Amino acid sequence: MHTDPMRYRHIKCEKTRFQATITLPGHASDVTVCEAVAEEISDCCQELGLDDDLRIVSIVGQGDRFATGRQALPDELRDAPATQRLAWLERMSLANALAHLPMPVLAVLNGDAIAHGLEIALAADLRVATEDGRLGAGEPDRDGFPFDGMTQRLPRLVGSAMARDMLLTGRTLSASEALDVGLVNRVVSRDALDETAGRVAEQIIAAAPIAARYAKEAVAAAGDLPLAQGLRLEADLSIILQSTDDRAEGLRSFAEKRAPRFTGQ
Hints:
46% helix
């Protein structure tokens, strides 16, 4: 299948018709994300979000780690006005760009996801991890205070008690512990990671793309809406889906006992 590479200096982004894969930088330092990397990922997500054909975006690291560390505030900004420091934090923040993609996002955790690396993973909809990987908020005295959604997204996945433990003490979870608390969806051997991630992606690609996008939207809203409003949103989205070509194709394929051919219409 043809792959279209998008040109970036620090990250890689490759697209086929239905899938895009963002690859994070390698092991140049203990901190994976610098300002230039954050800018490239945000720009990449903005472009991918406009592609109506895309059904899934995967994000993966290189080598034996996903992403680690957290960039420190530059020395020249330590005594700068608060507006300048806030502007730097906004430039460093990329998790919202990833989380706001309309299609499902899969984080393929090929190793440790620590500090800003975990914040990136938290922005995905699904996480597949290697059994030897670790996940953590980082050491408070070394990695500093989170700035890319950690304090908000982590407790929504693992609960308030575990989030406090990880944030206040620097507790790092093994992949199996992360699976137990709902931080990751699947844990596999390193040798099986690519196959498992590929299978998850294929399942999402094969599903009705509009329904997948609506499911993502409804689940994302569930944490912020009262139950009654959330149920209304679900009903509204369900009604909209009834009028799509994909809904009719799903019914036809079931009646004809064949695989559906969804078009995203």
